[in-house]
Amino acid sequence: MTLTRQEIEKVALLARLILTPEEVEEMTGQLGRVLEYMALLNEVKTEGVEPLAHAVEFANVFRDDQVEKSLDREVALANAPHRDEECYLVPAVLGDV
Amino acid sequence: MTSLNRFPFASSAAELLVALRKGDITSEDLVTAALAQIQTYDRHVGAFLSIRGEKALDEAREIDRRRTQGDKLGPLAGLPVAVKDNLCTQGEPTTCASRMLANFIPPYDATVVARLKAADAIIIGKTNLDEFAMGGSTETSAFQKTRNPWDLERIPGGSSGGAAACVAARMVPLSVGSDTGGSIRQPAALCGVTGLKPTYGRVSRFGLVAFASSLDQIGPLAQTVEDCALLLEVLAGHDSRDATSINRPVPPYRELLLQQPEKVRIGYVPEMLSDGISPDVVRTMEEAIDVFRSLGAAIQEVSLPHARYAVATYYIIACSEASSNLARYDGVHYGYRTDEKAMLAELAEERRRLQQEGNLAALEDLDTALVRLYRKTRAEGFGAEVKRRIMLGTYALSAGYYDAYYLKALKVRRLIRQDYDRAFETVDMILGPVTPGPAFRIGEKINDPLAMYLFDLFTVSANLAGIPALAFPAGLSAEGLPIGLQLQGPPLSEERLLQVGHMFQRVTDWHRRRPPLIENNGPLS
Predict the structure, then answer these.
(1) Which of B309, B376, B464 sits opposite A41 (nearest CB)?
(2) Which of A62, B169, B196, B406 is least surrounded by Cβ atoms within 10 Å, i.e. has the fewest?
(3) Taking Cα atoms as reference points, which of B178, B256, B221, B185 lies closest to residue B493?
(4) Is A34 in Cβ contact with B453 (below 8 Å)?
(5) Which residue in A16, A51, A71 is closest to B411 by CB distance?
């Protein structure tokens, strides 16, 4: 399994990362070798096998539909890197120039 | 007090509780001893990221006061406990050993932290780990390396490297870690301490910073099986805030240790002792089999035919879940955020350049300000191993590869689980190695991710299958480094694993061995 630099760049965008040219170089090799190893799974016959997403296969777990106390706004915002009195602040999304 | 003077925590937590109740020692003595041992050794070992010093002493004095007053106290009253730094502690830093959370102050306690407090344990500090628990050597911590107390040139294992090293260096009697693919058992084995990964769902994950949610489980580390039983009793139990938490009563694990289990059938997998495994580990296994046989256990061979696919399966699933879980680090809600002004200026400059060049395609693809905020924040906040795993997981979940990697891995995961189900029809538990060899040298594998991942071959299966596994010291290598073994059992078989592990520790003394550094109590250069 060989990965191209373009593939690495594409995945980095999907993962919301930016890689330096050195990181792209390094990852292309390292991830390629890991994926090559993962190809080992191709030798396992899995026709008709149900995927297992969770070791304990719970059905839905419900609680009563009652309002419970949640974090106060001030507490919830306390760790925000950029905020005003009541909101998280982000760069302009509309009319982006 | 005599033993405390030379080696704090030469005694087990169970013994200390008795001494506390009898009034032979105070909680203040214990916390003072813990802080002194940390003061002496932690600049060499590097187990702790933060230490609660005065706060812990105040809490200890308060417990002592309540004790003299005759108040009813919790089951761990006055005992110092270390907590891995991926467990939220209200109002006190929880960094996950990442720049991303360097300044994060959780607004609530993890359920296990709340349970420790309710049990009147004293939290001494937060222990180092691989960044976001991703790694097997604690070398990926953004803040410091933790060194193996048995040999300071070697890794303590990981990701709960600090959690295991602080018990090995006798800084605390009890420690709480988390295990996603061996992160409690592997450092326990490499540092010569005992550690348990409980059944998935036995301990609430609420407030554990998520790595791979279907695999993560919190558990105890200590010198002895008995102490792990004591601590598990406090940690375990249903929690409505974790929908995957199992709603079953918690057995009195420690009391049950007194019961001799009736005829135990222990299986082992002969193929696991073949190529690539250190002769020290093979010898340790053979000797342990003899010990269990002499204790009356029936030993028989079992087969786990899909075990050789566990590492590949594990890394696909763990990285996929990690890429999704870590999407929350966006520089908006909490944690690190890139310098916004610099980022906007850089983006404007790029746009100007592309416009000048008339490169319309690149201009079209240029990040919006918000996307660039995410990308720069994450590029600067995460370390190399976390990025690698996010990349792997994103790739495995991306269009065109999902079936070949993620879905395939989930199917093999079921086959791995079925192997165990079948094996547990004929044996009560399976004895096996924890690692293919003793602790390796710092720097030896850090630039070879695949070699690092392959070191996990014996531990990841228990997480994939959701079953409990108990790691305990069982020997020393030719060079004098600890070798651990593990007992894996069916879901919710903790009490049996603990009983059998306790039987082993009653007739062996590997768990009582201390690193030469501590034993010699020598001054360090």
Answers:
(1) B309
(2) A62
(3) B256
(4) yes
(5) A51
- A41, B412: Cβ pair inside 8 Å? yes
Rounded Cα distance, B50 and B85, in Å: 9
| Chain A residues whose beta carbon lies within 8 Å of the beta carbon of residue B180 | none
d(CA B84, CA B195): 13
Tokens linked to B499: 């009983």
Contact A90 B312 (CB under 8 A): no
Chain B residues with CB-CB distance to A7 below 8 A: 395
Q: Supply the pTM of this predicted model.
A: 0.97
Out of B244, B312, B332, closest to residue A56 by CB: B244
Mutate to test the interface with A, among B366, B394, B454 (most CBs of A within 10 A): B394
Active site residues of B: 84, 159, 183
Per residue of chain B (525 residues), give pLDDT as tens. Answer: 444 555 668 889 999 999 999 999 999 999 999 999 999 999 999 999 999 999 999 999 999 999 999 999 999 999 999 999 999 999 999 999 999 999 999 999 999 999 999 999 999 999 999 999 999 999 999 999 999 999 999 999 999 999 999 999 999 999 999 999 999 999 999 999 999 999 999 999 999 999 999 999 999 999 999 999 999 999 999 999 999 999 999 999 999 999 888 899 999 999 888 878 999 999 999 999 999 999 999 999 999 999 999 999 999 999 999 999 999 999 999 999 999 999 999 999 999 999 999 999 999 999 999 999 999 999 999 999 999 999 999 999 998 999 999 999 999 999 999 999 999 999 999 999 999 999 999 999 999 999 999 999 999 999 999 999 999 999 999 999 999 999 999 999 999 999 999 999 999 999 999 999 888 765 443
What domains are there in chain B, each with its CATH number?
Answer: 2-305+423-519 (3.90.1300.10), 310-400 (no CATH)
- Secondary structure of B91-157 in the HEC alphabet? CECCCCCCHHHCCCCCCCCCHHHHHHHHCCCEEEEEECCCHHHCCCCCCCCCCCCCCECCECCECCC
> In terms of residues, how long is chain A?
97
Is B306 in Cβ contact with A44 (below 8 Å)?
A: yes
